Amino acid sequence: MEYQRIKYFLKAAKTQNFSKAAKEMYISPQALTKQISLLEEELGVKLFERSTRNVHLTELGVLAENKFGQIDKELKLAVSEIRKAGEVLTGKVRVGIFSALPKEEFITPILTLILANVPNSHIELKMMELFDIQKDMMEGKLDLAFTNAHEEEDWGSCHKLVFHTVPAQIVVSLYHPWAVKDEITEEDMKKETFLKMDHNAPYKKEVGNDGFYYHIPCREVVTVPNFITLLTMLSQAEGFAVFPKAFHDSHTAKFKYFDVPGKDFRFQTACFYHKDSPNPNITPILQLIRDEFNVREADFHGECCEI
């Protein structure tokens, strides 16, 4: 019995629509129908009741979906575990880096340190957006993540080494009317659009609904999907944002920064990692970072420090 045939069946069972299932499996409806018929012949049972408008599972079709679904999940899990074991044996270290971090001051020294001192490891490097790097880290798709995060973010069971902490600031383009001001008041903010990163995205969670970003005074809130879009809209003077100057390196000359009136909110540049990682290269890399950047031993338990 071909496994691909079972996958076609599971997709058809899920969608209850052969045309839709075929489209999602990148085959023709006729080819999918033929594969389902061959599976029914192999099993000696009827899996679907068909009509001119739709299809639905028979009683035995429901049983087949449950049994084959369990097998499919177990197979995917087995493949994932084997791949992870292979990565450990080959010394692969999957590293995600927030693409807007300062390259000369931060990214280059970190990578040079790792590559020079852990020669047996294979570094798989990804330059990523904020949301993607947090999602992949929490799903176990990364071993290390170098990024910025604010104090109210929930990173689950991940631990972190903190390189530095900086305050959040109001950011506007030099073409914005506020650029001639020396400071910004809450009344100013209430008359302008707040450009906010989409903190409702998966894995981008703030602790509670009373977080800093829930109470920024503004005329309206416009959510943006990623940091590049945020910078573009800021450059066009479409509103103001709130993040630290340390979030990026090559764009600072285009913007002006102000203290947030009446607020004290900080961001951290940190290395996130899984304390229980089976990868033998993670511990020596963290040790290198601790020694090179004078990070205290307590930071291996997720505490913060300044270096």
Automatic annotation (TrEMBL):
Q: Specify whether Ribosomal protein is a keyword of the entry.
A: no
- UniProt cross-references to PROSITE patterns, sorted A to Z: HTH_LYSR (PS50931)
Ranges for domain HTH lysR-type come to 1-58
What organism, scientifically named, is this protein from?
A: Brotonthovivens ammoniilytica
The similarity comment for this entry is: Belongs to the LysR transcriptional regulatory family.
Q: What is the designated name of this protein?
A: LysR family transcriptional regulator
Per the record, the domain of life is Bacteria
InterPro entries per the record?
Answer: LysR_HTH_N, LysR_subst-bd, WH-like_DNA-bd_sf, WH_DNA-bd_sf
Transmembrane parts of this sequence: none
Cleavable signal peptide: none
Keywords (alphabetical) are: DNA-binding, Transcription, Transcription regulation
Q: What is the lineage of its organism?
A: Bacteria, Bacillati, Bacillota, Clostridia, Lachnospirales
